[in-house]
Every structure is written in C-alpha cells, then in structure tokens.
Request: fold
Amino acid sequence: MNKQPSSRTCFLCGRENPIGLKMSWYNDPDNSQIVGEVTVPEYFNGFPGVVHGGIVAAILDETAGRVVLVDNPDNLMVTMKLEVTYRLPTPTDTPLKAIGRVIRETSKRAISEAELQKPDGTITATAKAVVIKPPQEVQETWLPEKKHWKVVE
Reply:
C-alpha cells in the first residue's frame, strides 16, 4: 500500500497543525479502498474515554473524501453531503482504522462510504458521502499550498 499525500495545516492530516490528528491514509487498490490510521487523544472526548461525535464525523468525512485520490493525488473534492451513523462509542487513546471506498465516481463527483474500526475490527461509526469538484475559483485559492501537498514518511 502506498501512502497518500498530506498537507501542512489540515485538522486531520496537517503535519504542522499543533492541534491536528496527523492522520495518514494508504491506498489499498487490491481491495478497492483506502485505509487510515489514527489515535484520538483524550482531550478530543465528548465523554471521558469516548471520542466526540464531531471528531468521528470529521475522520469519516476526510476518509470518504480521500478515496477519490487513489488514482490521482490531485483529484481534490469537497463534501456536499455527509450522513453519519454512530453504532458504538469510539474510544479515545486507542489505535483506530478508517476505511473508505468509492461507490460511484465521475470526473466531477463521487459517492463514497467510510467506516471507523476499533483494533478488533468492531465498527464504531459509518458514513456515506457525496463529494464534488469545487468551483474553479475555489480550486485556485489552493494553489499556493500545492507545493506542500506531498507524501511525508
């Protein structure tokens, strides 16, 4: 599996974001999915020992949006719709796996899904997303940051 690029400031993947989660995702083309890894610190809890639901949604959102990067790391899209289902409490300070898959994709939009798993494979939350190519004027605002969008081992 090859690692996907990350940015400097993103809350989820930003390498230089002091309060970010610094997640990494890997392309898994053999299984038509991506896999992310994260341990959410206790200070992002909603209740002691439980990841805040907004953080869970953010992880699923980013994972569902990144599945379109498998064949093209510059195919950045933004979320138009996100539906999250919380199945079980997601534990803090525990290695978690985020898995994303494309359901349907065109050049301008995709429908994707994501799930968050505990180390034993138990799914704590799932999401379905519609992601779209943003307007050109939005994409142009990202250009200065493009040189920092890279794979860092």
Summary: The two ends are 13 Å apart (CA to CA).
